[in-house]
């Protein structure tokens, strides 16, 4: 067997990671960028800026978090397709895995879309405790966003498959086109037609549908897309058919649910604050969601490069990859944290004009900046843990840190800074737990390699 370290240096250098991660960055920030664009257009065109932003906050949260919850499908696709590409030179196994993932994504996406459209008022009032005066405009936004949910989920799965081919430029082009369509749509529906929340939501849904079509076309060019009609024809033994994905989906769904519930607790706690602070939280949360995705390329790089090294027992190559990811995480944390802090303080006038909202943003900005910094490291650690299939550890840690967040919100949730402090504490504990576990992962990797090589 060939030495792993040399191969790791050749295939997984920092330069290679950057060439993959920088285009991937544009892909991952596209989703939150759509909501940021909605926020900007609504704040600039709404008749009642404070009320509109207060209604947008829970409505956008439900839509974005619903799709975020289904991110486990993309990660499961990465786990299956990345290993299929290594084993399968003809591409048949890869297309079979994509068919399985797309079928499940379509089923789940359509189901979620129907749930959002039908039960939006109940979700807003019962789950998030939204002010009754804001239920009607928030519901309108959710119902216009609901038709775009299946397209968004399909896009996530197709993008995951494309990234497994180590091509991040092709899906980026499609994302840029859909983002441009969203800007044009917001300009038409919000600025010229004065559509308000409904107009912004409609523009986002249209751009998501366009993006899904473009991603599917890209996957066909890469020869990883199965016949689209086969996606609709499922075998009779449906559970057995999806079982290979369920091995990933079960634990990954649990992880996503615990993290999403954490954001739900934060949103519900904020809903009891003043309208100005709710508006400030909406803008801060959208900025946070946008910059948080700057860490996703690091996570995706780990999930794409580490599996074959860990499966081969190449501990030296795996450690080199993780070391390079750590260096990139440090650089990203400094750069992203600095830009976020600038926008949240001196640059917040770009997003909102109300002086009370801007002041509330400045008061909490230092804590949210700290959350962004820690999150950059968390992303690469998260990717390494998932690449090593350490699902049980990640699930357990996510549940424990959820209780930490709940306790922090109970005792310090009477201010925006206190709410974000709870989130930052949760992520910091998760990072330390992952570092401890990854040390053991490298040792287990070396042990498996020695056992396979024999005396």
UniProtKB/TrEMBL annotation:
GO molecular function, one term: antiporter activity
Pfam families reported in the protein's UniProt record: MatE (PF01554)
Transmembrane domains' residue ranges: 20-42, 54-74, 101-124, 144-163, 200-217, 238-258, 278-298, 325-344, 391-411, 417-439
Subcellular location(s) per record: Membrane
GO CC terms in record: membrane
InterPro entries in alphabetical order: DinF-like (IPR044644), MATE_fam (IPR002528)
The keyword Transmembrane is annotated on this UniProt entry: yes
Membrane topology reported for the UniProt record: Multi-pass membrane protein
Family: Belongs to the multi antimicrobial extrusion (MATE) (TC 2.A.66.1) family.
Protein name from the UniProt record: Protein DETOXIFICATION
Species: Guillardia theta (strain CCMP2712)
Organism lineage: Eukaryota, Cryptophyceae, Pyrenomonadales, Geminigeraceae, Guillardia
